[in-house]
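Hi X.,

You mentioned you wanted examples for the new student's onboarding notes, showing what a folding record looks like when two proteins sit in one file. Here is a clean example. The first protein comes first, with its sequence line followed by its structure tokens.
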Amino acid sequence: MIQMPGRRGRPKGTGIDDSDRIARLAELLRIHPDLKPTTAIRVMGFSDPSAIRRLRDKYKAFLRGTDTGLPALASIVTAPARVVRSVDATIPAVAERHLR
């Protein structure tokens, strides 16, 4: 029997389903293209550096099309947006300076 050497480091992936967060991030970046992904994630209310990094990396993978865990997002992101209420009303006051 051939023994494979053990893998080093942290295992790949957390198993957390972030598809709704990635869809919200994509919509926010579509509405405000001047924002960078990290700033948009902070605007969404995330402050934990690990969560910000995780969402940023998953968003970049989604843009590259390599993430097969988020197939339903293609229809959400490419569909035309309907304005139900003002986006600025849902953004915290602290983050408004990034949007102007």
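Then the second protein repeats the pattern, sequence line and then tokens:
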Amino acid sequence: MEIEDGISSGDAPNSISIESNKVPTKEPHHCRFGDCLNPKIGYGDFCREHKAIGKIIAGKIAREKADSVDHSMSMYEEALRIQKSPSGQVFVQEIMKIIILIAGIFLAVYILVIIPIQGFFEMFEDFFRYG
């Protein structure tokens, strides 16, 4: 496809044409904001006016973010709320608690049930042996 004098030849519609020499360009020392032609300040990309507007907007966003914090809880409680995501260490601790609980139940059953039954049978064994 070849472009000649803003009119393309081929299957494209002839009603759309852009002349490349009429595209507005800004000088590199002008503000980047829209069509502002004020000079930039220092090494920034914006003029004094648009830089001030940017700072005001950034301040409003920071205030809104600070206002969204729940003031009823302390900083310690809020830090705990943020860190409540479960980790692998918590999982291991819970498994260890379950194992210790099961071992405790078996120990209690052995002490309270098995040992007395063994003693009872040993008493009868001595009785029948020595008569």
